[in-house]
Amino acid sequence: MNELAEICKTCGLPKELCVCGTIAKESAKIRVYSEKKAFGKWMTVVEGLTEDVNPKELTKKLKTKLACGGTYKNGRIELQGNHMYSIRKLLTDFGFSEEQIEM
């Protein structure tokens, strides 16, 4: 007999049929803003991501695409530098809709 497929704890479907991540992306309201830190340095902040989206993986991808440093802490992504001009396109490329992103 075949081994049982791994079951999602949220929706109860097998992992290969699970749509929880897609639903979480569609329901999240993402807020993006820049703030000036010490010594005149800028930081771009992305807030409003749920844990279903895997924010640590998204942080890693954003840091790679933007060629900057950053971290995920206190429920928000903090990226070094002012990336307001390009963050919306990157988030839509990663599967978020334009309506979800509040600048």
Q: What gyration radius follows from the Cα positions, in whole Å?
A: 16 Å
List the helices and strands in order: HEEHEEHE
Shape: elongated
Q: What is the CATH class designation?
A: Alpha Beta
Structural class: alpha+beta
- Counted up, domains total 1
Instruction: Report the β-strand fraction as a percent range.
Output: 15-25%
Largest sheet: 5 strands, mixed
Biggest sheet, strands in spatial order?
3-4-2-1-5
The name CATH uses for the topology is Translation Initiation Factor Eif1
The parts where pLDDT drops under 50 for at least 5 residues are none
Helix share bin: 25-40%
Spell out the blueprint of helices and strands.
Elements: H1 20-27, E1 30-36, E2 42-47, H2 55-66, E3 70-73, E4 76-80, H3 87-93, E5 101-102
What does this molecule look like?
- The chain is of the alpha+beta class.
- 26% of the residues lie in helices and 23% in strands.
- A hairpin with a 5-residue loop joins strand 1 (30-36) and strand 2 (42-47).
- The protein is elongated and about 55 Å long.
What is shown here, in short?
The chain has 103 residues and is of the alpha+beta class. It has helices at 20-27, 55-66, 87-93; strands at 30-36, 42-47, 70-73, 76-80, 101-102. It has a single domain (29-102), classed as Translation Initiation Factor Eif1 (2-Layer Sandwich).
List keywords for this structure.
Translation Initiation Factor Eif1; 3 helices; 23% strand; alpha+beta; 103 residues; elongated; five-stranded mixed β-sheet; 5 strands
